[in-house]
Amino acid sequence: MNQTARLTGAQETSLAIVAAVVTANAYYIHPIIALVADHFGVSHARIGLVPALNQLALAVGIFMLLPLGDRISNRRLTIAFATGQTVCLAIMTLAQDFTLFVIGSTLLGYFTIAPYLLPAYASKRVAPERLGQVTAKLTAGVILGILVARVGAGVIAEHFGWRAVYWIATGLMLAITVALPRLMEGGERSASSRQSYPSLLVSVFPLIGKHREILLAGAIQGLNFAQFIALWLGLALYLTSPAMGYGTDTVGYLAGLAAVSIFSTPRLGRWSDAVGPRKARTIFAIIQLGGIALLWPLGGTLWGLLVPLFVTNLVGPGIDVTGRMTFLALDPAIRTRLTTIYVVIMFIGGGLGSYAGTVAYDAYGWAGTCALLGLCSVALTGLTMLTRRYGR
Fold it and tell me: How far is the C-alpha of 183 from the C-alpha of 176, rounded, in Å?
């Protein structure tokens, strides 16, 4: 395939499916976390290490490995990292010891770089006027992967046990790894940057001082992502507890509410274009704070939980979109590195939220989860108001 060859519609769809499968691996644990804890005989606080270290390792992996995309072909890197994910999932599937399961999950996070390489690969193979459309298709694949992982894991684990989830995940990744060399045709140059690997890493830090809003944007999304993970981990523990008595399939069905974001996010993005990302982000944060405030008074029944969960799923992704809008309008030469800073901070927040969420539930039950979410949401909303001074 030469440098100017275009992706076909079938190839674009195939890459979106790849994005879905490689992204899903980090989210199977959400609805089944109580089953995994019971199997290994660990506390609710300790099981939080699984998603927490996975997210923190992902942050490290993005910082350490993503810059290689400027020196090594995106195709080669995607195939290599997908292979690493497959091996890690096999370790988790077969692990008889909790420590080995945690190691497999942590390494899995470190190698989950493919979702961030695929857009770069596709961008070189589509007409400029279709770049947004194809990028949106890959993003939809990521959202679909998260949705299917959380719904599917809950239902499968309820009927066939939690290991069946990881057997299926390993099989899917094995199929993807075998198919990738054909799906991602060669022909691109191996190195597009003459910078050394250390210089690529170091070049990120001066941008923080020059564009300080990226830290605020990252912190806001870090809190947003922390809330998202802490909410669903706490919810999985709460709904499967003796107090509520539901199965993991119910947790999975509730996770299906995230489908609303697939339809709402593009519309929220268009509205944000009209009113400005910082104003829109503040409004989304206030609405989300209202939804989180309803978790405690409405959390006594399954039907009551639908209201706050719908609200948070409706506007939560909009906070991420508007955060990216604040720096993606800057110099194209620095957007990738600014994105790296933003995503690293986001996954650090996800890691901390994973552990804090399970610890809060272990110590104080559903009330502890609601209190943690409330504090995070208040801080997030305050930061969005602070960023309004940077302009429209």
Answer: 9
Q: Is the pLDDT of residue 80 over 60?
A: yes
Q: Which CATH code is given to the segment(s) 203-392? A: 1.20.1250.20
Q: Which residue has the tokens 């609805």?
A: 31
Length of the chain: 392
For 8-187, give the CATH class.
mainly alpha
Q: How many other CB atoms are found less than 10 A from the CB of residue 270?
A: 9
Looking at residue 42, what is its pLDDT? 93
Whether the per-residue pLDDT at 61 is higher than 70: the answer is yes
**pTM, 2 dp:** 0.83
Confidence of residue 119 (pLDDT cuts 50, 70, 90): confident
Contact 181, 188 (CB under 8 A): no
Q: Give residue limits of the domains in the chain.
A: 8-187, 203-392
Task: List the one residue out of 186, 137, 165, 102 whose CA is nearest residue 13.
Answer: 137
DSSP labels, 208-239? HHH-THHHHHHHHHHHHHHHHHHHHHHHHHHH
237-265 confidence digits (pLDDT tens): 999 999 899 998 998 888 888 788 777 77
98 within 8 A of 47, measured Cβ to Cβ: no
CATH topology match: 8-187 vs 203-392: yes
* Residue 297: Cβ-neighbour burial (10 angstroms; 0-12, 13-18, 19+): exposed
DSSP 127-184: -GGGHHHHHHHHHHHHHHHHHHHHHHHHHHHHHH-HHHHHHHHHHHHHHHHHHHHHHS
Q: Quick one: CA torsion of 322, 327, 331, 333, rounded to 10 degrees?
A: -100
**Tokens describing residue 173:** 């990744």
List, for residues 123-160, the tens digit of each pLDDT value: 777 777 666 567 767 877 888 898 899 899 999 999 99
